[in-house]
Amino acid sequence: MPDQAKWTRLGLIAGGGDLPVEIAHAMAGMNPFIVRVKGFGTDPFEGFESVEKSIGQIGGILKALKNAGCDALCFAGYVKRPDIKDLQMDARGLVLVPKALAAGRKGDDAILRVVIDEFEQAGLTVIGANDVLKSLAPAAGQLTVTGPNENDRADIAKALLTARHMGELDIGQAAVVAHGVVLAVEAQEGTNGMLDRITDLPAHLRGAPDKRLGVLAKTPKPIQERRIDLPTIGLETVTRCDRAGLAGIALEAGSALIVNREAVIAALDAAGMFLVVEDAQP
C-alpha cells in the first residue's frame, strides 16, 4: 500500500519501465493522474485517468495536471535524452530550453533540477518515488536466501566505492567488480548496457551461471536529485546479471529502488544469486 498522502491528488509523470506501473497500481485507491511520456512504450494504465504528452510540452503537462486537480507530482520511469527535433516543445518548453542547455554543461543532475524547479514554481510539490511508496527502497540487510561469501564481501566493498567515485564525477550510478578487478562502470549506456558488455569479456575475467563471480553495485550520486533519479533494479537487471555470471547485487539502504520486489527476489533465489543492502555512508 502507498504511504499516507500529504496531497490532494498526485500526478505521476510516467516514463518507460515497470516502476510507474507499480506505483500507479499501488496507489489505485488514491486516484492518481498519469501523464504518459510520449515514445516510451504502450499505454499500460488502463483504468486510470491519463494523458500522453511529449517531454517538451511543459505547458501542456502543467495544464493537464492543474485541470486534474493535482497539487503534487512524482516522476517515475526512465526517459532517455531526446533529439531536440523530437521534443514537440510548446511555448513554456521553449522558454525552458536555454536553462536546460546551460545546466547540461554541468551534467544530467543539473538538468533534472531545472525541470523540478519549473514544476515547483508552478505550485506543485515534487515527491520522490521512494516517498510515495516507501517499500520500494529497502532497509539494510540480506534479502535473498543466498548470501555473499568472504570474496564477495571484498568485491561488494570495492564495487560500492567505485560506483561512489563515478557518481562524484556525475558519470554513472553502477559498477561491477570481480575478484577485486573492476570489470565495468556505468556511463550513458545505462546499467543494462553495462551488464551486456560484461558478457563479451574473456571467460577468465568473469563468472558464469555455473560458477558465479562478481558483484553489481548501484549507489546514488552524491549530488543526486533523489526525488527523480534514484538507482533502480528490476527483473531485467536480474536477467542480465544472471547472463553475465555475477554472484549478486549490492545496494545502499534507502537509496535505491527495487521494482517488483517479490519477483526480483524470487528470480535471484532461483538463480542462486544474492541481494544485499548495505548501510549508506554518512
Any chance you could write out the topology, listing elements then pairs?
Elements: E1 10-14, H1 19-26, E2 33-37, E3 50-53, H2 58-67, E4 72-76, H3 91-104, H4 108-121, E5 125-126, H5 129-132, E6 141-142, H6 150-168, E7 174-178, E8 181-185, H7 190-198, E9 215-218, E10 232-233, H8 235-243, E11 248-252, E12 257-258, H9 261-271, E13 274-278
Parallel strand pairs: 1-2, 1-4, 2-3, 4-5, 9-11, 10-12, 11-13
Antiparallel strand pairs: 6-13, 7-8, 7-9
Helix pairs in contact: 3-4, 7-8, 8-9
Features:
282 residues, alpha/beta, six-stranded mixed β-sheet, 9 helices, 13 strands, 35% helix, 18% strand
Description:
It is a single chain. By secondary structure, the protein is α/β, with parallel strands linked by helices. It is 35% helix and 18% strand. The chain has 9 helices and 13 strands. The chain has helices at residues 19-26, 58-67, 91-104, 108-121, 129-132, 150-168, 190-198, 235-243, 261-271, and strands spanning 10-14, 33-37, 50-53, 72-76, 125-126, 141-142, 174-178, 181-185, 215-218, 232-233, 248-252, 257-258, 274-278. The chain has a 6-stranded mixed beta sheet, sandwiched between helices. The protein has a 5-stranded parallel beta sheet with strand order 3-2-1-4-5. A two-stranded parallel ribbon has the order 10-12. Strand 7 and strand 8 form a beta hairpin. Helix 8 runs parallel beside helix 9. The two termini are 29 Å apart.
